[in-house]
Amino acid sequence: MRATHTTAYLKLARETGTSFVTVYHIHSRKKMTASKAIHSTQAPRTEQWEPRGQPQPHSGPKSTDHQPRQAQEERRGPSQGQMVQAVAFPSPVPLVDIGINLVDRSFQSDIDNVLQRAREANVRGLIVTGTCVRTSTAAARLCDAKSREHPLFFTAGVHPHNAKQCTSSTLDELRRLASHPRCVAIGECGLDFNRNFSPPDVQEKWFEEQVRLAKELKRPLFLHCRDASERFTAILSRHMPLPAPAVVHCFTGSRTELEGLLALGAYIGITGWICDDRPERGGAELASLLHRVPRERLMIETDGPYLVPRSIKPSKARPGRNEPALLPHVLQAAAAALGVSPEELGRSTTEVACRVFGLPRHEL
Question: Region Disordered: what ranges (predicted)?
Fold first, then answer.
């Protein structure tokens, strides 16, 4: 073994907390490259807010096959060199990421670095998405642990994928979580008939229960709708008018679906999907619809670790995990679609987010 290789292996072992023998074994058998070893090695679990069990469900556009998106998208974190590329331009104004799955296990080993990169990118407010009682509780704990360092908030709710897990105590647990001072909305809740990880009738029951809860508590709703537009709008319509805004996050639907949501007074969240100009993926169609959304009802989000903006060039430098520091890419693409400056749109989306979710401006 060459001395230069030995030095490199020792350095890699120190950085990953892995033994020298393990690193050498992995390299010598060519099962993975050194960079993959960094991201494949499991870090010690030390944070008290770390969620346990299966990764939380995602939102967003259709997958290309029948497997859940968790199995399709890479979850490894980017290397240092990749992140230099990813945070190449900070936002000209402070931004709010209204939907980031920050308690996903892909963030557990480097959360402080993720928050630091967000600050460097001028992404100030982060709303951590809750998708079940477990992840909502983890989001509350993360806010308790890190809000002094970075303005963190969270939503409390049950994603339609997880509706089958709901019990008689679920609403009481969500009501308790909603009383947390950093909880800003009920959700992510709604309907997802694309894969039906929970039966449709069960999804509808618990979606409506959460709409009732938000109405009772006078809280905003953070909503998910995929391949269920008709039933989604029907259920939402039954509870109009709502005392607080309803935000449909990660919108990727059609013009008809958009007009139906806007007619209900819904707010719209846009993700890195708008950065994907491949014809089969629909990003260009989304960009063409953006001018139909009133500026006072438009917000932006990453939905990380999913939906890495494809505008990060070259493709080999795209990190395999989306995170708040990449939100300026969404801002840039949305501003281009609207024909306005990123600064103008950034101010607008931040103002809307603060108003809708009641975020304290002095923290941003």
Answer: 31-82
Q: What is the pLDDT of residues 119-141, one digit of tens each?
A: 999 999 999 999 999 999 999 99
Q: Domain 78-363 belongs to what topology?
A: TIM Barrel (3.20.20)
Cα separation of 243 and 115, whole Å?
33
Q: What is the pLDDT of residues 307-356, one digit of tens each?
A: 999 877 544 445 679 999 999 999 999 999 999 999 999 999 999 999 99
Q: What is the DSSP letter of 89?
A: S
Q: Strand pairing of 152-156 and 123-128?
A: parallel
Provide the angle, in degrees to the nearest 10, between the axes of the packed helices 200-217 and 229-238: 30
CA–CA separation, 228 and 205 (whole Å):
14
CA distances from 216 to 34, 166, 239, 305 (A): 53, 19, 11, 32
With 60 as the cut, is the pLDDT of residue 271 above it? yes
Euclidean distance between the first and the last CA atom of the chain, given in angstroms as a whole number: 52
Nearest to 129 by CA among 361, 325, 324: 324
Q: How far apart are CA 165 and CA 161, in angstroms?
A: 9
Tokens at 43, concatenated: 């870090």
Q: What amino acid is encoded at 41 in this protein?
A: T
